[in-house]
Write a structure and sequence with these properties.
With about 200 residues, the protein is of the alpha+beta class. The chain has two domains: about 1-30; about 35-200, Porin, CATH 2.40.160.20. The chain has helices spanning about 5-30, 35-40; strands spanning about 40-50, 55-65, 70-75, 80-95, 95-115, 120-140, 145-160, 165, 175, 190-200. A hairpin with a 4-residue loop joins strand 6 and strand 7. The radius of gyration is 28 Å and the shape is elongated.
């Protein structure tokens, strides 16, 4: 074996060793978890105009991955009180995360709808109404778990139980009402809200 051949063999062995070491190091390397992975559960207080948590409420969110989670909300709304469940898809960039959710809510109904062009008004009640909603949410969360954000969306009544209606302030008793006759079944209601909380 000539010296050039020996040198080439040594160089090939050295290159193979470097490649093997680099591959092993790459396989063993695991990126540090993000703040969203370290603190996948969050408890938030809400305030706003409608939405899954009502006008005032709270929510508990849990993410099985940084991109997929579930939020359970409850609160007191302008039209009634109840709870909601919202699956969410989330994209996070460092301290900010943008999520999109579509869910269902179950609220009582006690609502008066006024006509802007005359003096008539209708009063609606129901033991329970089912709302369908969609929302877009922006969340800020620091490394200590303190978080805040806001959301906008649309909600619509999809079903009802024991719905009834009458003219507002009328001495007459309530009459049975169909789901289609309730407000926010023919068109969605926009909502906006804000929240602050803690992730752990």
């Amino acid at each position: 074996m000539t010296s050039k051949t020996l040198q080439m063999c040594v160089a090939l062995v050295a290159m193979a060793s470097v490649v093997c070491l680099a591959s092993t190091a790459s396989a063993q390397y695991e990126p540090e978890p993000t703040r969203w992975e370290e603190r996948p559960i969050a408890l938030d207080l809400h305030g706003g105009f409608g939405g899954p948590a009502g006008r005032f409420g709270a929510s508990l969110s849990g993410f099985v991955t940084p991109n997929l989670g579930l939020t359970v909300s409850g609160g007191f709304g302008a039209t009634g009180n109840g709870v909601s469940v919202t699956p969410k898809v989330q994209i996070a960039w460092d301290e900010l995360a943008l999520s999109v959710g579509v869910g269902l809510g179950w609220f009582s109904l006690d609502y008066v709808r006024s006509d802007l062009f005359c003096c008539s008004a209708e009063e609606y009640r129901a033991d329970l109404v089912q709302w369908g909603h969609g929302e877009v949410q922006l969340t800020y969360q620091n490394t200590r778990g303190i978080r805040a954000g806001g959301y906008v969306g649309l909600a619509r009544i999809m079903d009802s139980w024991n719905a009834r209606s009458r003219e507002a302030d009328s001495p007459n008793s309530f009459e049975p009402e169909t789901t289609e006759g309730l407000p926010y079944t023919d068109r969605p209601a926009p909502f906006i809200g804000f929240f602050a909380g803690y992730a752990f």
